[in-house]
Write the structure tokens for this entry.
Amino acid sequence: MKPASDPGRLIIVSAPSGGGKTTLCRALRQRMPDLGYSVSFTTRPARPGEQDGVDYHFIDLDDFEKGIAEKRWAEWAVVHGNLYGTSADFLRQALVAGQDVLLDIDVQGTRQLLAHFPDSLTIFIEPPSMKVLAQRLAGRGTDDPQTVARRLRDAEQEMAQRELYRHRIINGRIEATIETLVALVEKERATGRKEG
Ligand code: 5GP
């Protein structure tokens, strides 16, 4: 396939879980329907209400490991004890077609993609405090206490690496965060390519 003269760009959003990232990415996609969205592959079981092929592609460990051997993932990582990966084919096709692609991935995945796509737009969504994050995680009610504890520990590690990101947004009130995020991505999509 011949590359487009103006290839697409990656827009990577990361946040500790419970940080409201799913809501934010959904809002961003609604406001920018031309954005591509990379549906990740994972070995994590689906949560109630999650749809295969929409929220994630839910696959088993054998299939995921086969994907590693076949170099099917543009990046992959173990997050909270499960494997997650981004389809290399999907990214390649969207980018050569000139489409910007939104990814909701963790810090490890961001690091891997930045090695290949250094001009990616990277945004880290921070909770106002670890205490607020703990309350949000427990209040969500989708995970058992052990899982919540693990996610909090992982969040501390992710927060420690937030300097990797070009932009950081503190997620206090979700409505305000959505506006900040949309404005930032709009501005970057208009000018970001030249600024690199
Ligand atoms: P959850 O299981 O709560 O949906 O996601 C857990 C974490 O995995 C989140 O931080 C999310 O951003 C991250 N994640 C989701 N998909 C991918 C992926 O394809 N690659 C990587 N590296 N992380 C991912």
